[in-house]
Amino acid sequence: MTNRIVRLRRLRRVTPAPGGEPAPRAARGGRRGATPKVVALGGGMGLSASLTALRRITGDLTAVVTVADDGGSSGRLREELGVLPPGDLRKALAALCGDDDWGQTWSRVIQHRFQSKGDLHEHAVGNLLIVALWEQLGDHVQALDLVGKLLGAHGRVLPMSAVPLELQALVRGHDPARPDAVDTVRGQATVALTPGEVQSVHLVPHDPPAVPEAVAAVLDADWVVLGPGSWFSSVIPHLLVPELLDALVETKARRILSLNLAPQPGETEGFSPQRHLEVLARHAPKLAFDVVLADQAAVPDLPSLADAAKRFGATVELAPVARPDGAPKHDPELLAAAYDRIFRMHGRIGPWR
């Protein structure tokens, strides 16, 4: 166990809940049968899909969100003000809003984008609100907790690091005129849309500090969910923050890797489900999982996926989690049912801490 994990493990019992006081023991899963403590990691629409499902089955949910976005409203705010990109954090907060009128109204408000011919064009209301609170409070976590309280969010949202990160990738064929050349591609937005084949990704700075509350949440979880989402730009970046990776390796939580419904054009074009696992293993060879969740219609070669999962120490669980209309998007109810079944089938860590 590394020294930094020993140091951060002390936060497990003392990290305040969003309201400022430690949550009651029963609410934190302190007895058998209480709600599971779940941490979901990712970014963008993939993480939103997981959160929308998970908030239906647990009352103790924390999202840990990537902070490498450099496009759109987030990129403009990041460049102009030197702040963390707020966009993926905003999407996670919106996904945690309830299904009542209050929750759905605030979800729409923070997702609303201005349409104009001026500087506000395409800025999201939630991005501006989050950045304003960061400037007012001078504390990323406190500000996000306050936004969550305003929205009535069914969970907590944390950035994976307190410094803006740049994603860089080694890409073969990024320039179509040089299909065999390997170039360094900079920026999450560019990596996500590259026409080439991503070989590997890394972060700048190379050894970014993790947010202590995010590390503490992973160490104290009962279940950790990684994915779905953009594989190289939203999922793997969490494994490139050393303290966060240490926590993911050391945690006593059970771990689920949730696969995408289809390869992402550009970033993972032509990837099989098992190839997603192989590239993740190259970036974090010590990380293990208990379960790999995949949609049964998206797995043409189950034996190969089972072999790839076995290298992580995991079994494959197939479930219908896609929307019935055929769109490559997760259905919240079906995904919730799949997560709930996995939590029950694979047993809870009990008695829960």
Summarize the structure.
By secondary structure, the protein is of the alpha/beta class.
Computed over alpha carbons, the radius of gyration is: 19 Å
**Distance, first to last CA:** 20 Å
Q: Give the biggest sheet.
A: 7 strands, parallel
Structural class by SSE content: alpha/beta
Order of helices and strands: HEHEHHHHHEEEHEHEHHEHEHEH
**Share of helical residues:** 25-40%
Average pLDDT for all residues: 89
Q: Give me the oligomer status.
A: single chain
Explain this structure:
There is one protein chain. With 353 residues, the chain is of the alpha/beta class. 38% of the residues lie in helices and 16% in strands. The chain contains 14 helices and 10 strands. The strands form 2 sheets. The protein has a 7-stranded parallel sheet with strand order 3-2-1-7-8-9-10, sandwiched between helices. Strands 5-4-6 form a 3-stranded antiparallel sheet. Helix 2 (44-54) packs parallel to helix 4, helix 4 (87-95) runs antiparallel to helix 5 (101-111) and helix 12 (273-283) runs parallel beside helix 13 (302-310). The chain is globular, with a radius of gyration of 19 Å. Residues 17-32 and 349-353 have low confidence and may be disordered.
